[in-house]
């Protein structure tokens, strides 16, 4: 910490920061986070913050879990690096795959590993091409995802990400990446439209998109069970059942991006379980290793994998690999993370404290600037409005949530602020009293926001 603090505010830093205003970085520099303990992080000025969003919605076991440090050190001493591929594999990496096979809702799954969530999603988009080619579906090359969902930073996954403003900078999306609605009932419902009618309209629009593009050209749809990057938009009544039926009708595969929702974030181990979704493949990352080291996974249904095996037969091998597709130290840490989930009954803990978290957020519902509060497991959102009745959204979009995030930072709370919402997703190990403290800091920041907006 002392050493980190000695790194003084570097203006015009060499480091290029993602999702940051690059010009501002030249004159202001980034907020420098130097240490962590439990649900708290400390900046180089020595100020503590509750990491209310687990950094990028990652941290499960907090910022100071010694067991994970020890697991890394053990593996570093045994075999610090070796790639798994070319007919060789490291036991710790194989063990992680076995563990994931037992854990995930896809029975008898096969597991490919990667380093990041983007990589897992990108690999899956590549694998589906082979699987489709081997199963007489070669004409299917397009991918559907949802507006406002984030799926990664590579060319393909950034194309899949449903944020047109982000696409514009890079000349994306690539051809074949299609986007359908995020089913945001709060913001998109027509006057008097109930949830069931809204769902029918959303799915009707998806059907139109599929028909327009040609169902025989579409390989898959990739979606998060619930999307925090979109502001935690809960699936409206009948949405998942209807969506799955629709895709099945057209032979379009469904893949779940569980990079955030995997590992207890929504309560059960996987978001697919929370919402009764039956995807053919699932991608995982982030909390899988407590986010201590980069490791990700593509979980594939047996039939899907069998097609890859056929492709391998045809070419004399599976022409896919990654130097760090299953780094031994990352795998050992992920394995220990999953063991800790079991030993400490992290899912039981989340189930016990989620109601307090939900109640803490719901208590802000009457505030004049709050239009909606929502939560599932340990993800929550508070959506701001400029006026409640008749409802008026903040203009420009995001002004209140951005301002709130700045006040929250002053009050010692780090949040994320997608669109007009503020999202909270604290480390899963948060205690009841820490939830109370987080909500108290939230309340103070809300008070500051109200004074500013007056
Ligand atoms: N998918 C989802 C749902 C994500 O939220 C993210 C990252 O935030 C990714 C994929 C990409 O993961 P990574 O940043 O590890 O590449």
Automatic annotation (TrEMBL):
Membrane-spanning intervals of the chain: none
Keywords, in A-Z order: Aminotransferase, Pyridoxal phosphate, Transferase
Domain of life of the source: Bacteria
Signal peptide: none
Molecular function in Gene Ontology: transaminase activity
Matching PANTHER family: AMINOTRANSFERASE, AMINOTRANSFERASE CLASS-III
Family per similarity comment: Belongs to the class-III pyridoxal-phosphate-dependent aminotransferase family.
The protein's name: Aminotransferase class III-fold pyridoxal phosphate-dependent enzyme
């Amino acid at each position: 910490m002392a050493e980190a603090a000695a790194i003084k505010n570097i203006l015009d830093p060499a480091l290029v920061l993602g999702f940051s205003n690059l010009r501002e970085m030249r004159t202001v520099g980034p907020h420098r986070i130097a240490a962590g303990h439990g649900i708290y992080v400390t900046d180089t000025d020595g100020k503590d913050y509750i990491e209310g969003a687990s950094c990028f919605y990652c941290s499960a076991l907090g910022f100071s879990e010694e067991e994970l440090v020890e697991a890394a050190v053990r593996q570093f001493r045994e075999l610090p690096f070796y790639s798994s591929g070319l007919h060789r594999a490291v036991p710790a990496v194989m063990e992680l795959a076995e563990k994931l096979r037992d854990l995930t809702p896809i029975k008898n799954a096969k597991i490919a590993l990667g380093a990041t969530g983007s990589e897992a999603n990108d690999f899956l988009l590549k694998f589906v091409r082979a699987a489709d080619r081997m199963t007489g579906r070669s004409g299917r090359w397009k991918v559907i995802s949802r507006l406002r969902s984030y799926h990664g930073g590579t060319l393909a996954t950034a194309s899949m990400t449903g944020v047109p403003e982000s696409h514009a900078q890079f000349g994306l999306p690539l051809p074949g990446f299609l986007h359908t609605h995020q089913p945001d009932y709060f913001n998109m419902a027509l006057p008097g439209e109930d949830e069931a009618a809204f769902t029918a309209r959303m799915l009707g629009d998806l059907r139109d998109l599929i028909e327009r593009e040609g169902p025989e050209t579409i390989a898959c749809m990739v979606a998060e069970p619930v999307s925090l990057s979109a502001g935690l938009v809960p699936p409206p009544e009948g949405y998942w059942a209807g969506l799955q039926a629709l895709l099945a009708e057209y032979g379009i595969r469904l893949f779940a991006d569980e990079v955030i929702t995997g590992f207890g974030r929504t309560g059960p181990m996987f978001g697919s379980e929370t919402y009764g979704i039956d995807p053919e493949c699932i991608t995982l990352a982030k909390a899988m290793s407590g986010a201590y080291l980069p490791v990700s996974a593509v979980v594939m249904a047996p039939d899907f994998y069998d097609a890859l095996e056929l492709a391998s037969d045809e070419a004399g091998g599976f022409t896919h690999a990654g130097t760090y597709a299953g780094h031994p130290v990352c795998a050992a840490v992920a394995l220990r993370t999953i063991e800790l989930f079991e030993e400490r009954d992290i899912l039981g803990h989340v189930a016990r404290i989620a109601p307090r978290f939900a109640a803490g957020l719901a208590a802000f519902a009457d505030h004049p600037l709050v239009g909606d509060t929502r939560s599932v497991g340990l993800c929550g959102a508070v959506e701001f409005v400029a006026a409640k009745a008749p409802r008026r959204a903040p203009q420009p979009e995001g002004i209140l949530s951005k301002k709130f995030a700045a006040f929250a930072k002053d009050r010692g709370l780090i949040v994320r602020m997608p669109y007009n919402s503020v999202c909270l997703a604290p480390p899963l190990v948060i205690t009841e009293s820490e939830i109370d403290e987080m909500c108290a800091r939230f309340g103070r920041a809300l008070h500051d926001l109200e004074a500013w907006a007056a």
